[in-house]
Amino acid sequence: MAGTHNRTIPAPRKWPRRLLGIVVPLLLLTGGGYAVLNLRDDDLREDDAQVAAARGPLTAFLTAWAGNNTTKAAGNTDTPDAAASLLTSVMTNLKPSRTTTAIDGEGRKNGEREVGFPFTVTMAVPGAGDITWRSQARVVDTSGTWKIKFTSPTIHPDLEPGQTLALKSGDHRAKVLDAKGDPLHAGSLVGTVDPVSGKGVSGLQSRYDDSLSGGGGKPNRSLVIADRESGRAVKDLSEAPSAEGRPVRTTIDPRVQEAAADALTGVEVNAAIVAIDPRNGHILAAANRPGGFNRALEGRYPPGSVFKVVTAAALLGSGAKTEDPAPCPKFAHVDGQRFENQKQFDLPAGSTFADAFTQSCNTYFVDARSRLSDTDLRDTAQKFGIGGSWDVGTTTFDGSVPVTTSDNDKAAATIGQARLQASPLVMASVAATVKSGTFDQPVLVPSAVKNKHRAPAELDAEVTGRLRELMRATVTSGSAHALKDLPGRPHAKTGTAEFGSDDPPRTHAWMIGYQGDSDLAWAVLLEGGGSGGADAGPVAARFLRGLAR
Q1: Using one digit for the tens of pLDDT, what is the confidence trace for 516-541?
Q2: Is the pTM of this model over 0.85?
Q3: Is residue 121 part of a domain?
Q4: SS3 call for 232
Q5: Are 372 and 396 within one domain?
Q6: The dihedral sign for the CA sequence 383, 389, 395, 399
């Protein structure tokens, strides 16, 4: 046929009622020609009635399915047991929060006793979004009763016998990486992903969910056809691949992280170890036992005597010398409040500032408070970065050293009690600052750090040198003797911090330090763990030995 022509099909003609029963030829376009179908008016009425009768069980089936009543839905089929089994499998696998169904248009007769209906199913599936597909139902009249002729494709056109619909977790979510580019093995840092929604709910998985998931909020699960017996996915029904996520790289050194985790093995109380590179503040390890809460970076604890590093810096800055006499009695009294040394020890006459520091004498530091103003401890703590707002790349607690408000408040603050709070990260950073001479804010995810906190003032070089001598002497002849025979020239300070209202009070065990021969500063905390020297010391020793292997 030369050329093309538009053809208008006239609307059906309304025939007079007197022509009922007369054969009417109807032209149906089929491809390039036509066919003749003879219909009677009484045939049309009968067809409408059959379609309406067939629609009833399908409507009931779809309504019950949308209501997740699989048994009721299956009762409208010719094989209720098989239908209920497959429907239950689908709904159990997908767990939709909402299901809607709709018959699409009019039914179409397929012979004398069968009507076919197209229908649509839409499900809101957590983690996969809205899923929609179209299918076909065949409704047959058997002995005057219309039932859906049920087969697997009734549920979904791509299903075959022995198969079901299921969800497959997307493999597009990127990994949290260590400093070497390998997947990070540190549960408290990495965090968790909700298995249903696919969203990060804690740790770095939560903070960097947009990056790791490839767009934030995008479905991370797709609809698949799975073998019912093995559960193996045999066909992916997703329309398009999910966006690829971008990995998040941290500063964690896997060797240091492993040594920290191993050192906490067998510890019966909540505990944490943090390690930092003093050159740049990179966090090399953050281990927690048990996992879950990231106490290494976020915990808030009284620092106890490990804070004497800061107090000593304030006293040295005010003119004190390490060789100055330092009386260390069993008790010190301040406005009716008694302070005492651990196990009520005292030091002999002629003891010096250095002796008071290395043996962790509380009473000397309490009595030395008169050399300090109400702001001195806060101002000195700021030189170590404490109390600033740190941009680390993850959630941290950055310490708090308030201005003292009374003589008792100042006395307690000199030994790391009163209202002082710090995290293991903060105290590891104190040790790192002594090592390097300058505060360099800790960092975990360098690419995310925009504004590193800078200390408002730096430590005096002579003060820093004296602190290094004091921390080394604490290992060689003081309370950190658990590290005495270790290689690497460790420098340390012990701490035992009271907390709670028990009588006698319970104590956290602390030890902080750095290696003189390598770029490593660290902090160990045992919650309610007893004594810094006796309890935190052996854990610190295990950590350093693990690194020396």
Answers
A1: 999 999 999 999 999 999 999 999 99
A2: no
A3: yes
A4: coil
A5: yes
A6: positive
